[in-house]
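INTERNAL AUDIT FORM
Audit reference: QA-55
Scope: verify that the stored structure record matches its stored sequence.
Auditor: D.O.
Record contents follow.
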Amino acid sequence: MMNPIDLEIYWNRLIAITDEAGAALKRTSFSTVVRESNDFACVLLDTEARLVAQSSLSIPGFIGTAPLSLQGMLKVFPKETLRPGDILFTNDPWIGTGHLPDATMASPIFLNGKLIAFAIAVAHLSDIGGRQWSADANEVFEEGIRFPVIKLAEAGHFNPLVMQMLEANVRLPQQVRGDIEAQVGALGVAERRLIEMLDEYGLTHIDDIAAAIFKASNDAALRELRLIPPGIYKGSVDSDGFDERVSIQATITVTADGVTVDYSGSTGQIRYGINETFNHTYAYTIFPFKCLLSPGLPNNDGFTRLFKVIAPEGTIVNARPPAAVGARHLIGHQLQAAVFEAMSTVFPERVQADSGTPLWSVLLRGVDVEKGTSFSTILFFNGGMGAMRDRDGPPAAGFPANISNTPIEVAETLAPIVFEQKSLTDGSGGEGIHRGGMGQTVSFTSKWPGRLRVSLLTDRTRIPAKGIYGGEPGKVGHVLLNGHPVSNPKSVVDMLEGDTLELALPGGGGYGKAK
């Protein structure tokens, strides 16, 4: 049995390694998506594809999908076929994180000729070709170029065809290549620092460290889990959907040894790009349990092994290919509400009301044919979080995605727009003993000399975030173009020079009935 002091030292060292890898990725990336919004993850896994450590800025969607992605990669390239310097790569939504813009890379780490671990770096690329990133595609083939599991590098030699194919299919080849190379750099940092750590402590593998981490995390989570009376608990959440509302039903079975979450009864997959894939559904199902059971412990397999997720194929939470999935986060970010509602009867002091999620994503693209110039940039905005028993909901907070707002100064530097307003929206949080977090109102004017194409990836413009324990729902959001409502706030709209777009993000639900 490992000495607890040694375990703490090793554990914190592994987190420091992933944090350094994450810092390398963030600081060397070319896009604001990674550099400003932190839409990335760096993790370490053992040789059995089990999560060991994560970088502190990693987002839950990528942390939760990484082990599943590596398992899928190793089915194509088994461990015994891998060599030092190999880098596996895919953006397949059903193997990676759920949509094409996310590039998932994995590299094996060897010490003295023996495989000892894997490093994974995931990042949302600023463009992946196809139609402009949006929610209104009808099948995945419209959404960009899809790479199966391939070797981006083999024995340290990069495959030039991969980058040639990628650069030929994206609108921002330099920016995309820069982010890919930043991911490669992050993998190298993780490998070097892990080997340095093992050399420093005279170790030849991480198996014993991983086993001790898993046991400590598993024991801690089980102690909390066993506070829940065994039984069946149900929760649900309704989303705006696309043309019609979407219903997500969660049946949660709790035993003394684990949890099963079953999404049977949820809306079937639809023709537009808000469908989820299993990996992303899994990630955002276990995350709210992480918040409930062991918020202070870093993610690892000792916690995640307690959960089984059932998401029937052909439903909105596990769409069959070639379903469009580009805006799958519009569903995935709302799964937490169903879990919290189901657990509200046993953890009233820990659950929170529904939040003004999902993250709103706005992609701006302009092309000047005469001058031969163009630009493309992605902006992220957050609504208000739900309230809890002991606090109001934080305003404009990145829950559950952990993705940051893009600073105005950065956005105006990189895109031909001028912000007219960016402020918290008074009264948008639901009333209660504790109020839901306020959303924010953002408006900007186009300075592009021509047509500016704007993709709107939004939700909760029709159905508000629910309150809990008698708390009031938050206010819905809206999208206005020159003061007029946009007919479909999940569409692509055109702005001309001088036009103004206003985005009002939804507020979070309140907790408890106000006296």
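Auditor finding: record pair retrieved intact. Residues 121 and 184 are 8 Å apart (CA to CA).
Action required: none
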